[in-house]
Every structure is written in structure tokens, then in C-alpha cells.
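Apologies for my clumsy wording, but could you write out the amino acids of a protein and the C-alpha cells describing how it folds?
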Amino acid sequence: MAKVHQTITAALIQHTCSSDPAANFTQITEGITAAAARGAQLILLQELHNSLYFCQTEDTGQFDLAEPIPGPTTEKLSALAKQHQLVIVASLFERRAAGLYHNTAVVFECDGSIAGCYRKMHIPDDPGFYEKFYFTPGDMGFTPIATSVGKLGVLVCWDQWFPEAARLMALAGADLLLYPTAIGWDMNDSEAERNRQLDAWVTVQRGHAIANGLPLLACNRTGFEAAPGAENDGIKFWGNSFVAGPQGEFLARANSDAAETLLAEIDLQRSENVRRIWPYLRDRRIDAYQDLLLRFRDNTGRKLP
């Protein structure tokens, strides 16, 4: 593995998806090629980028979209990583065995090898996001993946709402936090509610960057996707992919409703500098956090398992 760079150029490939995996992969290839030409060393793709967001409904036929790792898509992404000499973070529907599937991020080193994987740990089950039907919760823990651009704390979408996940990646030595994402609005939401949801999504992730003194990258899909069978009114994915620095500052931010290859320069040394003046890891009261292992504490003070 090559020596880790102190400053890296990262690219987030935000795009719409169709029901044609070949067309989707052509978009991805074009985005990676363009980003490489602009000096990118790290590529982050959006969640489940090979297909439409099939989790809007529960349909056993959608399991046909899953593939093994290694498999056809990893072979193609491996070739792109090697061709352009860059690190790629992808997001795949993994078929681990019959009846056992995961939402899995795969990291490719610049020589084309698979540096590691992360299986999504937090699985939502909400109207339009029926992921528990499709995905088994991850069993690989919160372990950063070592690459030539640093140790990548890769998490996936719903994971981004949980501070514990970001913290555990930071405690394990992550240099960056990365979130492939597929999130958008219910078409029945009011404009005010849409704004609140988007602000919450951005704010919680900037908070992870600040609380851990780490750069953070979130790559979200964009465009409207109708629900199969018209079971609901579909989802308008809100784009807004962004890169934040270790104090939560925006380094780059994409638009809301169009494909965009977003580039950002990330100075990894700033994390060291920020942590020296805001030493959150030093001041953590690890002797007093045992109750974090409880599901809830009621208002009588009793500890409930």
C-alpha cells in the first residue's frame, strides 16, 4: 500500500438511477473517469447505485438484483480503480447465500484489489423504506478500512443518524467518515416538512464531523423514483451530497435535483490540529457511559434492559 497522502482530492458521484443497470453503470463510469481527469484520488458512490431504490415495496422478485462479492460489479469497479489509480467506495446489494442478503459497501484500492467491506448495521423499516424485508443487519462491526488515502470509516445511509456508529469508527482510528446514501422526501410532505428533514440530515452529519474531529463525506442519489405498483407516491431523492471538514464546515456541496460530480480538497492534517484544541476524545467520561448499552431508562431511574 502506498504512503497515505496528507491532502487528498475526493469526488462524490451524485446521479439519478433507472431500471437499467447497464445505463446506471455507464453513468458511474463516466463520473469516475471525469473525476479522475480532475485529479480525484478517492471516489464515493451513492447507496445501491446499480438500480432503482427497490425498497419502496416488498417484492421477492427484487432479490434477483443481488449479487455475490466478489462478483460482476466488483470486477468492473476493480478495473476502474486500477485503470485510474484511485480508491473507490461502492454500495452493493450483496447475495451472501440463499435467503441471506446485505446492504454492503465495498472499498477498492487503487491497484484494483478489494481493500475491505462494510455491511450496513442499522436497517430502517419505514413507509417507502422497507429495508428490513431485504437486508440482514451487518455483522462486521465498525472497523475502518485501510487504504492508500487513509483509514475509511465507511457507514451506510440510516447509519448516519446514529452518533454511536460515527464515534466507534473514530475510536477505531478512522481518518474520514463516508456515507453512501439514498434518502428523499415523501411526495405528500409539505414544503416546511421537507426543509426540516433536509436540515436535520445535514446537521446530524456535520455534528458527527465536529464531535469526532474528522472530515465527512455523504453521497446521496437524486431524482424522482416512482414506487413499483403505485403502492405510494414515490420518493423525490434530495441530492445535496456534501463534504464537511472536521469542524463541520462545508468543503463542497452539490445541488438538490441534478446529477453532479462533486470534488473537494481534504486536508487530513487539519483533524490533528482540530483535535488538539477540541480534545473530545481526551475528555470522554468512559467511566460513566455504561447505560449506553441499555435500550432505555425510564423516569424512575430504573435501568431497563
Summary: The radius of gyration is 19 Å.
